[in-house]
Amino acid sequence: MDDLIAGYRRFRAGTWANQRARFEELSRSGQRPRIMLIACSDSRTDPQMIFDVAPGELFVARNVANLMPPYSPDSKYHGTSAALEFGVRVLKVKHVVVMGHAMCGGIHALLHGAPAEASDFVGHWVNIAERAKLRALHFPPDKRQDYCERESVRLSLENLMTFPWVREPVADGKLALHGCFFDIRSGVLEQLGDDGSFHPVEDGAGA
User: Fold this and answer.
1) Closest among 104, 97, 152, 147 to 129, alpha carbons compared
2) 91 with 33: CB under 8 angstroms?
3) pTM of the predicted model, to two decimals?
4) H-type alpha helices, 137-172
């Protein structure tokens, strides 16, 4: 907790002081992000850091393995679906981005089974991506994790289209869906192209 308090003090002295006017405007006018991002809870993949965005620019939902479950309106708890509903139907975002990443523990649990210490919820949750796992099994063992991490992004995009209030604005051109993949080993971001493959995004750094 001491580290968090120290970080808060740096925030107050730096970010808050530098962006106070922005925070005050957000408090008065509310949030109006144009982009919703579904990302993994992994502590190494912070969307706001990766995309270098200011407060109020991204509406973010994070969960284990950046998974989007299919549309299933029932009495169970649906945290990610609730966030999606709020982002699309209330905030009226124009883009929904699913971002996967390398070395994902959730995808490892999908392929090899959840750790014994995380057997109450993790195993059931990652099974959302069972179809991605089955596709990955066609690859050699040393390639499955890498393939499945990207395939889970494709699958989450497929699941997004099962939501009627996502499917309709997409068809009308009012909402766009995107997939991307971040490699924490290299810092390279890949974007899912129209050809169904991931391609590195030019970073302008020349390296």
Assistant:
1) 152
2) yes
3) 0.92
4) 141-160, 164-171
DSSP annotation of 21 reads H
Question: Which top CATH class is 31-196?
Answer: alpha beta
Q: Which two tokens stand for residue 59?
A: 């509406």
Q: How is the chain split into domains, by residue range?
A: 1-29, 31-196
DSSP string, 51-109: TT--TTSEEEEEEGGG--PPP--SSS--HHHHHHHIIIIIS--SEEEEEEETT-HHHHH
CB of 65 closer than 8 Å to CB of 88? no
Indicate the helix (H) or strand (E) that contains 183. strand 176-183
- What is 110-122 written as a DSSP string? HHH---GGGTTTH
Q: What are 67-116's pLDDT values in tens digits?
A: 999 999 898 889 999 999 999 999 999 999 999 999 999 999 999 999 99
Tokens standing for residue 52: 């270098």
CA distance 151 to 15: 37
Tokens of 41: 């809870």
